[in-house]
Design goal:
Ferritin-like; Ferritin-like diiron domain-containing protein; Ferritin-like_SF; mainly alpha; 64% helix; Rr_diiron-bd_dom; three-stranded antiparallel beta sheet; oxidoreductase activity; Ferritin
Length: 220
Amino acid sequence: MKRKLLIFTTTVVVALIFASCGGSKKDKNENGTDSTKQESATIKNLKDAVNGETTASAKYAEFSKKAKEEGFISISKLFEATSKSESVHAQNHLKVLEDLGVKYEAKADTFSVKTTAENLQAAIDGETYEVENMYPGFVKQAETDKEDKAVRSFNFAFDTEKKHVKLYTSALESLNASKEKTLAAEYYVCPKCGFTYDKNDVKENCELCGTSKEKYYVIK
């Protein structure tokens, strides 16, 4: 009887030790990364930014087609350039997630395509939100979390979206004044940060990241 009791007691103690050891370890996700880190605010913001930039890229590609259908070639080129730019931002954000050990598949939202004038206004509204609300908050949170790569990626997008607001606003004003043909019809997009130039303000080296002009995507 004493022998049975001793065996039982030993088994319970061993089980408790294993349970304790298992509980002391941080949960890991299927990628082997710390699940608590995956739920951090900056990682959530990176995922949201990936989705937003992916949606914007797809949306502007369709806006480009619509502008071309309506005969606004310069505006079509502008949307083609900004679509490429947003794609660069999405890829940058995804790369930061990968560096943090997070695998993520972008999820694009639905959107509607209207007249080119309406599409330009929708683009202005979307970029203005990112400039005034989304990215400033994302940058601040990433700085708090000491995620330097996220800060850099967010700032690349933030500074570029400010330029996009100016480009879209100028395009809409020209369209409303029936001066669309005076707009630039040649654009350059930095492959590293996504910054967007027209042929009148293109730099030999990107003003955001220093990338050489020879490496820019050219839309003309």
